[in-house]
Amino acid sequence: MIELYDYILSDDAYKARLLLSFLGLEYTARKVDMHPGREHLTAAFRASVTPQSRLPVLRDGELRLTGPLAVLSYLAMRYDPARTWLPDDAVEQAKVLDWMAFAEREMAPIGALRLARFSDDTLLAGPGAVLPAARNAMAILDDHLAGEGGGERAWLVGERPTVADVAVFGTAAVAPDAGVMIEDYPAVWRWMGRFRHLPGFIVMPGVFPVIPELVEPA
Amino acid sequence: MTRTTDPVALNDWYVVGYAPDITADAPRRTRLLGQDIEVSRAPQGGFACREIGEDGGRTVPHVEERYGFVWVCLGTPAQDIIAIPEFSEGSDRRFLHRGRIAVPISGLRVIENFFDLSHFSFVHTGTLGGYGNAEVARYDVEFREDGTELWAVGCSFVQPKASAAVATQDTVVYYDYRIPRPFISIIYKDSLVERGRKDLIGLFIQPVEETSCVVHSFAFIFDRTNTDTDILHFYHEIFAQDRMILIHQHPQALPVSPLGEVPTISDASSVAYRRWVDQSGLEFSVLRNWTGDQMTRLGQVAGSGDAGVAA
Predict the structure, then answer these.
(1) Is the dihedral of CA A74, A78, A83, A84 positive or negative?
(2) Rounded distance, CA B2 to CA B237, Å?
(3) Which residue of B has its CA nearest to A37?
(4) Percent of residues in chain A assigned helix, strand, coil, to nearest 5
């Protein structure tokens, strides 16, 4: 049985929820009181769930994994026999890993700023140098999706959605919470539209679904 | 920004923190009405508040603990902290601090969104509303307590999941909204667990600046099955959906001119709220000269989302 340690407002946990849904996998959610309880910082959490004090944490039998990179890679390799979400091809797989690393590193300022702005931690200090870094990540993403000298890229790598799209979407979609507005990045805006139409797509709070009546008039 | 000079705003009480979060080791530095303050435990018990300024600061005399929160008035209180009789009922309700959430928008807009019914189906799809039941039934707007409190009563809505405590099934839920002060609202919602009793959910807004605020909130409810964490996840889902809508609202202060927007009958509570706020004389977070024709292009609206929180 798969268990997911989850907080409803965690963008990283949302990435795990998304792929579990795309793959049609059943799981049990273990809800964590990140805010306001800061449960992930407690000694009990570090001892019994993960010493890394972060989400998501995925348990599958004896296996325990922390963070979206490991969780998404494992789920794709273990439960997607068609290998579309994490391609076998050496070049494609390397590019997917590159974008997953981008989601963990370059996009980290967006996630951090978002959580700080949800609580009032940046109230007196202001967003400081983090906001330009957050915008820079969105600009890199927008440039890539806009393509070169031709049409836009439909997906980050290759011709189909991969775990790279899942990892980047989960944070980019809630960037407005951090004060980074998606309207400023038109290629990202259109890529998100494609992503939201994927079969099995689910929302998180702050991400809105495609309203079915508008897509298929009755 | 600097401290407001608006006497109506200064002479009111505001929640500035959740009492158990403020310890002897961890005072709370924050901002109220543009004024930086520090709230701490007082040596003789209770709480103390100090304005922080270049001149070394000043002690704020009006600090109270009530309903689990710390309240501050920077001026001379024009009235007492609001009464919430349910807190002294010796109730079997559960009290939950729902966490504080900052929103870069006028606190008045947060209150207005809280009692708005028509967004439920489209913003809280699957919990507080659904696409198939978007109609807002008629409700009444009343002034109570000698006209000092605004109430929207007899509200009802078809909700797929009205609270964490109930199974997912479309149910007509009835409630009243109490707006005792411009920056405070409490919902009295018919409990689906304890028939004939009310669940309370309250928002106490800390107006930080004209267009940014911190929302302190509590739930005082009947729920014997869920853990606190289950209930918090339910509320945070709803709040994060609201926050995403609120940060895109424009203008960021609350327009109160009748010329500015075109309401429908379902907006009766919002119309009454704006007139009531207008007549209160409050200036902080209020826009009186907005006529709706000063539309800015989308980019400027989007960019303005940073203005509230950035120091």
Answers:
(1) negative
(2) 34
(3) B99
(4) 50, 10, 45
Q: Is the model's pLDDT at A50 over the cut of 80? A: yes
Of A43-47, B132-136, B240-244, which gets the smallest average pLDDT? B132-136
Confidence grade of residue B177 (pLDDT, cut at 50, 70, 90)? very high
Residues of chain A with CATH 1.20.1050.10: 90-196
Closest CA to A185 of A216, A215, A146: A146
Chain B environment of A185 (Cβ under 8 Å): none
> Which one is the CATH code of A90-196: 1.20.1050.10, 1.10.1060.10, 1.20.1420.30, 1.20.1290.10?
1.20.1050.10
The CATH superfamily label for domain A2-79 reads Glutaredoxin (3.40.30.10)
A97-146: per-residue pLDDT in tens?
999 999 999 999 998 889 888 887 666 667 777 899 999 999 999 999 99
Tens-digit pLDDT profile for residues A8-41: 999 999 999 999 999 999 999 999 999 888 999 9
Q: What is the pairing mode between strands B47-51 and B35-41?
A: antiparallel
Encoding tokens for residue B59?
């002690």
The residue among B236, B297, B304 with the most chain A CBs within 10 A of its CB, best to mutate, is B236
Q: Which residue type does A62 have? A: E
The structural domains of chain B, ordered by start, are 7-73 (2.20.25.680), 91-306 (3.90.380.10)
Q: What is the ipTM of this complex?
A: 0.88
For CATH 3.40.30.10, the residue range(s) in chain A are 2-79
Tens of pLDDT, residue by residue over A142-165, are: 999 999 877 899 999 999 999 999
> Is the Cβ pair B241, A205 closer than 8 Å?
yes
Residues whose CB falls within 8 Å of the CB of residue B234, separated by 6 or more in sequence, listed in order: B127, B163, B164, B226
Task: Inspect the interface and report whether the beta carbons of B302 and A117 lie closer than 8 Å.
Answer: no
